[in-house]
Amino acid sequence: MIVESSGAITLVGGGALPRRDLALAMARAPRLVAVDGGANRLADRGLMPEAVIGDMDSLRLDVRAVLPATVLHEMAEQDSTDFDKALRSVRAPLVLAVGFQGARLDHGLAVLTALVVRAQHRCIVIGATDIVFHAPPSLCLKLPQGDRLSLFPLARVTGRSTGLRWPIDGIDFAPDGMIGTSNQVVARQVRLEFNAPGMLVILPRRRLDAAIAAVTGQ
Q1: In angstroms, how far apart are the furthest CA atoms of the chain?
Q2: Which of the 8 DSSP states describes residue 165?
Q3: Nearest Cα to Cα of residue 91 among 3, 166, 159
Q4: Positive or negative CA dihedral for 120, 126, 106, 195?
Q5: Whole-angstrom Cα distance, residue 131 to residue 151?
Q6: Could you give the CA distance from residue 218 to residue 212 in angstroms, rounded to a whole number?
Q7: Helix or strand or coil: residue 153?
């Protein structure tokens, strides 16, 4: 384990990183960990991460030169992505990930896969319009009625729900079968239960705090 924290961590990737994204995450998770080229993004803003994790193939030489050796944690193996390397190397009650939803579709899909592979980690990925996280076995979300709530399976999963316009009870979800995009909240609380790992929950970005409360049990 490279970083252990009793508080939330902001994990920064090398993709597009609007200032509002970083500010949104750091207001809730002030400790910074960079994933490879994410250190470039932080350096451009005058910020120093407490760790940089990855294969370092995207880390600029000028940034590397000013980082203390103790901050750099190079993992040269190519069997996993840098996001996966970082996620499995930090221990915290919550990880907020920014700079991972960019133009490259393959990178975005790899991030979503890692959320399922590392399901034991509580991680919320913040994008330009949405947030996404892996669903725990049971989940209670406090959301306004009319909100969009999407479910996207990356494995075969069944579940139950209350508070959704279209209940999911009895549905066999699968990435090559039934998916659950564009459902709608119809009650003050949405309760979800799943029989196995593999389900991603996608909410509007403005519901980040509701998602944090749900995944951390607050």
Answers
A1: 56
A2: S
A3: 3
A4: positive
A5: 12
A6: 8
A7: strand
What does the pLDDT read at residue 105?
A: 85
pLDDT of residue 166: 97
Q: Nearest-CA neighbor of 133 among 88, 182, 198, 187? A: 198
Residues 217 and 162: beta-carbon distance below 8 Å: no
Tokens of 41: 């993004």
Q: Kindly state the DSSP code that residue 178 receives in the 8-state scheme.
A: B
CA 103 to chain centre: 17
Using 70 as the pLDDT threshold, list the residues of the chain that sit under it. Answer: 102-103
- Which residue is it, tokens 């996966």? 84
How many whole angstroms separate alpha carbon 35 and alpha carbon 85? 9
| pLDDT confidence of residue 16 | 87
**What are the counts of helices (DSSP H) followed by strands (DSSP E) for the chain?**
6, 16
What is the four-CA torsion angle of 159, 161, 165, 166, rounded to 10 degrees?
20
- Of the candidates 54, 180, 35, the residue with the CA atom closest to the CA atom of residue 96: 35
